[in-house]
């Protein structure tokens, strides 16, 4: 079997260096900084506030001269989109508007000229999943009735619709009988990879647009994606394992079998929305039941139900991206409990146990309240960063679902949509030469890939020595 491409783009040297440095931080025991009572909404809000505050210490995009929406190195653009998604939920769950202005500024700055989250600065490296995380944040803003951008600016629902439309056009029947490729541009490494997260973001977005707008076209697309993943290719197997992806050069017959929490999560929320859209159909009920049962894959200790990023936590190899994945599983478990109340008791038990476990790790860093990566430790494990903070934030606020009014839809909400949004994009499977991408961009992207691989290999050699 040929080696499959990188799951995410190669870890740049800075990121590897950061992980090494993170492990070198000494664990100093500070008085538990977060005392959490999961039965008291005020206690949960207080914990979420500390976690959000710790997360936003990393963000500099609102400072003069910096770019709104970008996190500094080593964090990729997509994770910033994920972070603003977390903050959009944070305001909804807690009512704390501290980050609303920053969030709106960042979201609007990154929409790109076609208002579809394809900003020219990112097109060298942007994948469908990267675009998807920003689009899902916009979708959350519509569902939460987040304050709308001023008239004349891009609107939340229209942004989600536009990103959806660009991705629907990229659906690639020519290879593997369907599916989205990971990368948007032919010249990017990973263009031959059809992966679970890219298709999962599209599925998640489609299912939520279906529920929000009641437009069955979106639901049909969600059905198409799930059917392709589950019945045609088997990246979602019969036991609801979510394998990472496959390669069009192998006709999608061989998989990268690694499983990540965010893949299970992104489909969990999508399936819950389809269950909701179909009025609780037996098909989607069965999918939902299967996905929830197999979350056990990420709970090595079935009695405590504490979530573990099983592919990397036990061997201390989680990269910067992977450190944030539990955040999205937490977010989407909460969404599933709301959209499929029949499954709420089961999901809420997991959310409670994990919020309590995560809170115990939040004694790190200079301020003594940064959260760790491993929730199984019961203490701070010496690791910290945006991913660790976001994961703690999301698992805390997920426990507030019973104290908020619930999502709105096109009738009860206020966000303006545009079913024709996203028609302007020229990037489809047969049309990958978007005029805005210059030859210099392509050469740059190639050089970047080569350079980064070189640095990465250098790092591996260095570590081996
Ligand atoms: C693109 O990069 C330039 C230069 O760093 C910056 O000024 C601009 O704000 C960026 N635009 C976006 C949408 O990030
Ligand atoms: C892909 O193929 C399916 C049938 O195999 C068809 O229904 C669908 O319209 C095709 N989609 C596109 C975008 O060509
Ligand atoms: C759909 O979601 C709403 C909450 O938005 C919930 O009240 C309703 O019961 C759900 N429908 C089903 C079939 O579970
Ligand atoms: C439903 O969504 C599709 C896909 O975006 C769009 O083409 C169509 O116009 C929408 N229909 C209505 C009635 O809004």
UniProtKB/TrEMBL annotation:
Signal peptide: 1-32
Homology family: Belongs to the glycosyl hydrolase 76 family.
Organism: Cyphellophora attinorum
Region feature (Disordered): 411-433
Enzyme nomenclature, EC number: 3.2.1.101
GO CC annotations, alphabetized: endomembrane system
Name by which UniProt lists this protein: Mannan endo-1,6-alpha-mannosidase
Keywords on record: Glycoprotein, Glycosidase, Hydrolase, Membrane, Signal, Transmembrane, Transmembrane helix
Subcellular localization(s) per the UniProt record: Endomembrane system
Sample GO molecular function, one term: mannan endo-1,6-alpha-mannosidase activity
GO biological process, one term: fungal-type cell wall biogenesis
Reactions accelerated catalytically: Random hydrolysis of (1->6)-alpha-D-mannosidic linkages in unbranched (1->6)-mannans
Transmembrane segments: 443-464
InterPro entries referenced in this protein's UniProt entry, alphabetically: 6-hairpin_glycosidase_sf, Glyco_hydro_76, Mannan-1_6-alpha_mannosidase
Chief location bin: membrane
């Amino acid at each position: 079997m040929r080696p499959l491409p990188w799951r995410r783009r190669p870890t740049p040297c800075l990121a590897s260096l950061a992980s090494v440095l993170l492990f070198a931080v000494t664990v100093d025991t500070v008085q538990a900084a977060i005392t959490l009572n999961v039965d008291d909404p005020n206690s949960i809000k207080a914990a979420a506030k500390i976690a959000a505050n710790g997360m936003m210490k990393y963000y500099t995009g609102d400072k003069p001269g910096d770019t709104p929406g970008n996190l500094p190195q080593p964090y990729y653009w997509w994770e910033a989109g994920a972070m603003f998604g977390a903050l959009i939920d944070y305001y909804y769950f807690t009512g704390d508007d501290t980050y609303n202005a920053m969030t709106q500024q960042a979201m609007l700055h990154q929409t790109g000229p076609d208002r579809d989250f394809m900003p020219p600065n990112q097109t060298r490296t942007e994948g469908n999943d990267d675009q998807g995380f920003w689009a899902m944040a916009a979708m959350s803003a519509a569902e939460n009735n987040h304050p709308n951008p001023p008239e004349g600016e891009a609107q939340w629902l229209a942004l989600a619709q536009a990103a959806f439309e660009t991705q629907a056009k990229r659906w690639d029947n020519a290879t593997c009988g369907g599916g989205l490729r990971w990368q948007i541009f032919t010249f990017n490494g990973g263009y031959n990879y059809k992966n679970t997260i890219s298709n999962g973001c599209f599925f998640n977005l489609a299912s939520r647009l279906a529920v929000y707008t009641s437009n069955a076209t979106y639901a049909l697309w969600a059905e198409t994606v799930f059917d392709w993943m589950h019945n045609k290719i088997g990246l979602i197997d019969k036991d609801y394992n979510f394998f990472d992806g496959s390669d069009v050069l192998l006709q999608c017959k061989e998989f990268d079998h690694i499983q990540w929490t965010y893949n299970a999560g992104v489909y969990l929320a999508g399936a819950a929305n389809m269950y909701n859209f179909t009025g609780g159909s037996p098909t989607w009920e069965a999918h939902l039941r299967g996905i929830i049962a197999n979350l056990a894959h990420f709970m090595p200790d079935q009695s405590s139900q504490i979530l573990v990023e099983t592919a990397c936590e036990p061997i201390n190899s989680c990269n910067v991206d992977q450190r944030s994945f539990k955040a999205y599983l937490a977010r989407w478990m909460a969404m599933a409990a709301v959209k499929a109340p029949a499954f709420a008791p089961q999901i809420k038990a997991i959310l409670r146990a994990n919020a309590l476990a995560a809170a115990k790790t939040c004694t790190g860093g200079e301020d003594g309240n940064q959260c760790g990566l491993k929730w199984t430790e019961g203490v701070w494990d010496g690791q910290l960063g945006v991913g660790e903070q976001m994961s703690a934030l999301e698992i805390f606020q997920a426990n507030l679902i019973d104290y908020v009014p619930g999502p709105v839809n096109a009738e009860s909400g206020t966000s303006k949509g545009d079913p024709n949004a996203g028609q302007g994009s020229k990037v489809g499977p047969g049309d990958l030469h978007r005029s805005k991408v210059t030859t210099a961009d392509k050469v740059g992207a190639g050089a970047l890939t080569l350079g980064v691989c070189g640095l990465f290999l250098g790092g591996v050699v260095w570590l081996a020595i």
